[in-house]
């Protein structure tokens, strides 16, 4: 029997200019949220609908629980374990996407699960039992659940999706979201800003004769952003965005938790009690939208809060969001009087107080007719319908047919311009050297969707020469991609300290037929699980090799400040790590990395303190 995937390989048609697929393909829209996620589609009646599979509800809590044998469950069932098994229950993973430990270090106390501190700028990892997960893998588990619900409800396989992200997400976070979709078995046709999706849900921008300036105020569970867009002739132009990727409904919950802790004079709150407080705080926040008093208890702890106290608590947060609105207006160089519509997005905007504050600020009656929890997913479904070729009333600008990037350590592809980016476009990233004294860097440019460059198409290669000899990690090398409207790619590399630079021009689409591009896209989805497993093994090896190198250098430089026992044990852990690196087990490598980090951290801090005290000796601090 021929599989569904094989059947589709024979039928798929892709318009390389718009990314549109044949009309009979169902493309879903996904709002991958910090607190809750949703999936929607456009039905035969041309209306966007949020999927409520088997009466489970349209909102799928973005919570994952791992059982003893590491089998994940997602949604309401997983929320139960936030209290009973908090160390194995993951929440707010969206806040970790594309971030290093240093990015979230000050918020570590709010996560009940173990986030690995490797004292580096590498992306965070979460340890569950003896296994390590990246935020990409965890997000993929949530996306798999959404995909499964969509397939069950629609009674058809689903392979393609549009996924929304906050307008403030950076390149790394957007790429991480796309990778998560790929790992979940979805071809992510486009990553769409949540404000754009919300505008589409209200029908703003579908009328080509309409010209409007729109504010989208998006106060979700984990992020806040405000976008000002001008929509004309069906074209969405973002005039400005502002916001805070660490401000959301979770922070409102924490204010309530802190209020209860202080009010009850609680000390040394354990993880289980904290999780109970967190869930009660979320309940209180929702209740105070329609009643004046919330009064509950946990064991012997009385949890009371009235609406007036609640509004006083959150006023600083609301004022912070309005300050972002002021900055967005200034960046867009327009006044409040120029705003035609204000759209409310995100569960936090259900608060009557927040709606009133925003309405007063913009001097407008805000749009909240569509459920603010659902509006983004509905807009994503409309965008998916446009990409499917079912709407011709919205202009889609030319987009890149395949992703463009460079080769990094271990033969990995680091995407700089993702597939389906509107062109012309410009994007860049910063890199550094891997070994001490490195003076040349080979830069290889690739095109494709696979994680390993060996599976992609090589476009060009050049050497950046004359980098000043410095310790590994010190040089800063900017690599910028500029893709013009004609599809010509300019790659520019500059070492920022010395000003040494090199430029090359390539034509990415040259020599590839539509069929070849189509096959590359399909291969990237069918091989996603294997590709990402290989990527994570290579990244773990790279991390292990770098740590081994750094630890050896540390011992050599600080031998007089370490005890013989510390040196012997560190060398033993280094030998163990180097032996495990040769194996094909990512989790074993990361466990060895974690052991070496944990053991050396105390005396590394001691050496640092000694260095600082020596440097400050004899100096006064005014």
Notes on the structure:
The protein contains 16 helices and 26 strands. With 622 residues, it is of the alpha+beta class. The strands form 7 sheets. Strands 1, 2, 3, 4, 11 and 12 form a 6-stranded mixed beta sheet that branches. The termini are far apart. Mean pLDDT is 83; it is low at 1-23.
Please provide a brief summary of the model:
With 622 residues, this protein is α+β, with helices and mostly antiparallel strands.
How would you summarize the topology of this molecule?
Blueprint: H1 4-11, E1 27-31, E2 36-42, E3 48-50, E4 60-61, E5 64-66, E6 72-74, H2 76-79, H3 81-84, E7 89-90, H4 101-104, E8 114-115, E9 126-128, E10 131-133, H5 135-154, E11 160-165, H6 171-183, E12 187-193, H7 194-201, E13 211-219, E14 224-232, E15 235-244, H8 249-263, H9 271-287, E16 293-298, E17 301-306, H10 307-332, E18 341-345, H11 352-362, H12 375-387, E19 404-408, E20 412-417, E21 425-431, E22 440-447, E23 457-465, E24 477-483, E25 489-495, E26 501-506, H13 514-526, H14 528-557, H15 564-581, H16 586-616
Parallel strand pairs: 1-11, 11-12, 13-18
Antiparallel strand pairs: 1-2, 2-3, 2-4, 5-6, 5-7, 8-9, 9-10, 13-14, 14-15, 16-17, 19-20, 19-22, 21-24, 22-23, 24-25, 25-26
Helix pairs in contact: 5-6, 7-12, 8-9, 8-10, 14-15, 14-16, 15-16
């Amino acid at each position: 029997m021929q599989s569904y995937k094989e059947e589709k390989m024979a039928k798929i048609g892709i318009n390389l200019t718009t990314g549109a697929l044949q009309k009979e393909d169902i493309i879903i829209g996904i709002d991958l949220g910090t607190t809750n996620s949703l999936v929607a589609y456009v039905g035969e009646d041309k209306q966007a609908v949020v999927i409520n599979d088997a009466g489970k509800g349209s909102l799928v809590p973005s919570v994952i629980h791992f059982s003893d044998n590491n089998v994940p469950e997602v949604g309401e069932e997983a929320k139960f374990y936030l209290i009973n098994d908090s160390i194995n229950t993951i929440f707010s993973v969206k806040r970790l996407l594309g971030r290093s430990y240093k990015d979230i270090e000050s918020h570590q106390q709010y996560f009940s699960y173990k986030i690995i501190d490797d004292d580096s700028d590498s992306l965070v990892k979460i340890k569950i039992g003896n296994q390590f997960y990246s935020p990409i893998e965890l997000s993929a588990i949530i996306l798999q659940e959404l995909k499964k619900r969509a397939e069950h409800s629609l009674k058809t396989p689903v392979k393609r999706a549009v996924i929304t992200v906050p307008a403030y997400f950076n390149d790394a976070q957007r790429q991480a979201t796309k990778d998560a979709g790929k790992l979940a078995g979805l071809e992510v046709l486009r990553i769409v800003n949540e404000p754009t999706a919300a505008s589409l849900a209200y029908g703003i921008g579908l009328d080509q004769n309409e010209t409007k300036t729109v504010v989208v105020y998006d106060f979700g569970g984990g992020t806040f952003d405000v976008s000002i867009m001008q929509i004309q002739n069906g074209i969405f132009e973002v005039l400005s965005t502002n916001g805070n990727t660490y401000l959301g409904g979770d922070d409102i919950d924490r204010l309530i938790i802190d209020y209860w802790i202080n009010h009850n004079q609680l000390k040394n709150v354990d993880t289980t009690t904290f999780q109970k407080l967190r869930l009660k705080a979320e309940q209180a926040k929702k209740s105070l939208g329609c009643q004046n008093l919330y009064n509950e208890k946990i064991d012997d702890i009385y949890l009371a809060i009235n609406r007036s106290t609640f509004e006083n608590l959150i006023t600083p947060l609301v004022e912070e969001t309005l300050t972002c609105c002021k900055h967005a207006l200034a960046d867009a160089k327009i006044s409040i009087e120029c705003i035609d519509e204000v759209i409310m997005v995100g569960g936090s905007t259900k608060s009557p107080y927040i709606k009133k504050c925003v309405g007063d600020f913009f001097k407008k009656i805000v749009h909240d007719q569509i459920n603010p929890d659902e509006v983004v997913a509905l807009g994503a479904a409309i965008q998916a319908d446009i990409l499917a070729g079912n709407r011709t009333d919205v202009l889609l600008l030319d987009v890149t047919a395949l992703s463009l990037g460079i080769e990094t350590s271990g033969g990995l592809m680091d995407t700089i311009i993702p597939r389906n980016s509107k062109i012309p476009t410009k994007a860049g990233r910063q890199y550094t050297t891997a070994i001490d004294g490195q003076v040349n860097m080979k830069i290889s440019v690739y095109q494709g969707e696979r994680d390993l460059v060996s599976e992609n198409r090589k476009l060009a290669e050049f050497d950046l020469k004359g980098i000043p000899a410095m310790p590994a990690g010190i040089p800063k090398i900017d690599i910028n991609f500029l893709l013009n409207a004609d599809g010509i790619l300019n790659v520019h590399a500059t070492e920022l300290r010395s000003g040494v630079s090199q430029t090359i021009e390539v034509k990415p689409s040259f020599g590839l037929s539509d069929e070849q591009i189509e096959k590359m896209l399909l291969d990237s989805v069918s091989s996603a699980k294997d590709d990402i497993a290989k990527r994570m093994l290579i990244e773990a090896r790279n991390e292990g090799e770098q740590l081994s190198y750094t630890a050896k250098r540390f011992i050599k430089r600080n031998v007089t400040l370490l005890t013989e026992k510390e040196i012997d044990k560190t060398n033993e852990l280094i030998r163990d790590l180097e032996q495990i690196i040769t194996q094909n087990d990512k989790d074993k490598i990361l466990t060895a990395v974690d052991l070496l980090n944990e053991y050396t951290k105390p005396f590394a801090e001691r050496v640092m303190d000694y260095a600082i005290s020596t440097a400050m000796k004899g100096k006064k601090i005014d």
